[in-house]
Write a structure and sequence with these properties.
It contains 15 helices and 13 strands. By secondary structure, it is of the alpha/beta class. It folds into two domains: 146 residues, Aspartate Aminotransferase, domain 1 (Alpha-Beta Complex), CATH 3.90.1150.10; 234 residues, Aspartate Aminotransferase, domain 2. Helix 11 crosses helix 12.
């Protein structure tokens, strides 16, 4: 099955926006365009339902129902229970709240494992548990490839480890980590698993229930939605950790790790993400239950992205003036491509802008992995990231521009 990119792009108002005409967007890892169903729901909420939800009058009932709809539909697509999914102001904030819960729950002598493949928003809050006296063990990447080796994780696991934190894929390395295998290793050692999915979820909602991690985090604003953090916490762990919210909310799982009230309008608008996935499924003849539809759309998206990614990797991998970070095979990589140059990445991005290419340069909060791979964070990398609404013509335009500036 081939992704219908004309249909896809018709669902994103940005592609009809005159101010963006002629611009090819290659900084999607920093935030994607927003799909029309999300925008429509957000506008409707602010126009018709901007009241405190869950009161007995109609506007309030409709407001609460849309918030519940977003949680229920996204949870179903990810293969988890409705109350196992919650919203917070950002993934970084959600991670900090979870780290505080683990700090209160863990006992002296306990350890956690983090990687140096993460960007700092997921790694930093967990690393700060060392200040509370807990041991923080680092699962290190290969300095040449940037990859994590599960065999190295096995050497770090023992009965003192309470949590293993790692990214589904890195925002600079781009390698897709084997979540199922890593989760199985951690669970066998008696540890819980936290997966940072921020850089992966834009390439297809994951079947969290099927993969098995205890925590899965990602950002709606990078997944065609509003600026919210979405957090899955499986019930066993969620009920085990201390409540971080108002004491009277302790009995509601999706409220336990949201200390402040969520942004009602943005939560409601997140149902538009589910609308979009269902629209893609229906247009391409993908049927079945919520998980089956989401998995079908995921596979459709990955097929399209992989076909577009390989020519870019082939172009970059043999360039003497550029060091391609991460895998050179598209099937093992998300379409997030970081390139170390002999000049600051932001300078290259500035030159690409003159060619109608919107890209980014810098360290992207990935100071630890860049340093581990011998890349000067001050110089950073040029990052070229795309998603399924990118076309072959835009990739060709990028290759032409890169040929000129490199």
């Amino acid at each position: 099955m081939t992704l219908d990119t004309d249909f896809v792009r018709a669902q994103f108002p940005a592609f009809a926006e005159p101010s963006l005409e002629g611009q090819a967007f290659f900084e999607n890892a920093g935030g994607s365009y927003t799909c029309a169903p999300v925008i429509a729901r957000l506008e409707r909420y602010y126009r018709q339902r901007k009241v405190q939800p869950y009161a007995p009058y109609e506007a309030s009932q409709l407001a609460g129902a849309e918030m519940d709809e977003a949680r229920a539909r996204l949870a179903a697509m990810m293969g988890v229970a409705t109350d196992e999914l919650s919203f917070g102001p950002s993934t970084t904030q959600n991670t900090y709240v979870l780290a505080q819960a683990f700090r209160q729950w863990m006992e002296p002598g306990d350890a956690i494992i983090v990687t140096n493949q993460d960007h700092e928003a997921n790694s930093g809050p967990w690393r700060r548990l060392a200040d509370a006296g807990f041991e923080v063990r680092e699962w290190k990447i290969n300095p040449e490839s940037g990859l994590l080796d599960p065999a190295d994780l096995e050497n770090l696991l023992d009965d003192r480890v309470r949590l293993v934190c790692f990214p589904h894929c890195s925002n600079v390395v781009g390698a897709i980590n084997p979540v199922v295998e890593i989760t199985a290793l951690a669970h066998a050692a008696g540890a819980f698993v936290c997966v940072d999915g921020v850089s992966y979820a834009p390439h297809g909602l994951p079947d969290v229930g099927g993969m098995g991690p205890d925590i899965y985090l990602f950002s709606a604003y990078k997944t065609y939605g509003p600026h919210q953090g979405i957090m899955v916490i499986r019930r066993e762990l969620g009920n085990l950790l201390p409540n971080q919210a108002h004491y009277f909310n302790a009995g509601t799982l999706y409220k336990r790790f949201t200390p402040a009230g969520p942004d009602h309008a943005q939560v409601a608008a997140s149902a538009g993400m589910a609308d979009y996935i269902d629209d893609l499924a229906a247009h391409h003849g993908i049927t079945g239950d919520a998980v089956t539809r989401a998995v079908g759309v995921h596979d459709l998206i990955r097929g399209h992205e992989t076909a577009l990614l390989q020519p870019l990797l082939d172009f970059l991998k043999d360039r003497n003036s550029a060091r391609l970070i991460g895998p050179v095979e598209a099937e093992h990589k998300a379409p997030t491509v970081a390139v170390a140059l002999n000049r600051p990445g932001i300078d290259a991005a500035t030159e690409l802008a003159q060619h109608g290419i919107m890209a980014g340069g810098g360290d992207f909060y990935a100071v630890r992995p860049l340093t581990a791979m011998g890349v000067d964070p001050e110089r950073g990398v040029l990052r070229l990231s795309f998603v399924h609404y990118t076309t072959r013509a835009e990739v060709d335009k990028l290759l032409t521009a890169l040929d000129d500036i490199l």
